[in-house]
Amino acid sequence: MALALLALGPQSRAIEQLAYQYAMKGASLVLVARREWNLRQVADQAFQLGAHDVIILPGDVANPDDCNRFVQATISHYGRLDHLVCNAGIASVGAFEEIPDVRNYSSQLDVNFWGSVQTTFAALPHLRQSRGRIVVTASATGWNPVPRMSFYNAANAALINFFETLRTELGSEVGITIVTPGWIESEMSKGKFLKEHGEVEVDQEMRDAQIGLFPVEYAKNCAKAMVQAARQGEHYLTVPAWFRAMYLWRVFAPEVVEICYRLLYMHGHDANQTEALSKKMAEAGGKHLLYPTSLRSDDIKSD
Fold first, then answer.
1. Which of 28, 71, 181, 200 would bridge with 122, disulfide CB 3.0–4.6 Å?
2. What is the rounded CA–CA span in Å between residue 227 and residue 23?
3. Considering 22, 78, 152, 265, which one is annotated as catalytic?
4. Quick one: which of 113, 117, 81, 78 has its CA closest to 6?
């Protein structure tokens, strides 16, 4: 494996583990995120784990100019690009009727959808030359209609559909692996969300209401599965593997999924998370059994 450009984002723990898994395969890396100090820490560790070379490029995937800059800097430094990993994402929570202004969620599409699309657009000519691969992290919510996450779900559905269409257009010229994780150890599963007023906040009570009794997979396991799927040329990957059963329920019994989600997430006729059954179940001991210990701390990196 010659070179991987990881266009990352705010899910820091998953980002770090992806970089480390590529490093252990001997890849040369380009790491992209907004936090330069965090990039330097990850780069140092990646070197120790076996990366041939690492460069860091602070920037924002929501900025189209930055997306072009990331790719051009990669080509200028290495002369080629083999894997483009699009992993940037912001989670949002809030029932649709509680949102004061839907424009507050515009950044959701800027990062989750357009960040991956713009970077792919800039990288595609170079990936054609290397017959490389795009690894894009969407979310299982792209096909799993979790309440109170309508904009996040929609952004991921758009991302999945876009890359499925692109795969059809490109054929075998550039491989595409679409990753649809369930709940993974990250800042998102620590409770960092884009809230109704358009600002990012940490709300672990909302986190408990959203995750409920779903087990949370360790970031290292997810990253390892992603790199393995990319190397094997897989079209799709869902992590954890048991979560694939949710897709079957969604396809063959959508009414059952809707009823279950209303019972778990909706209190009466509203979406008050403080009274949601999912939150009560998590607080009754579910989160101590099913969440990694890292999620029990409210220590989260700031933007």
1. 71
2. 10
3. 152
4. 81
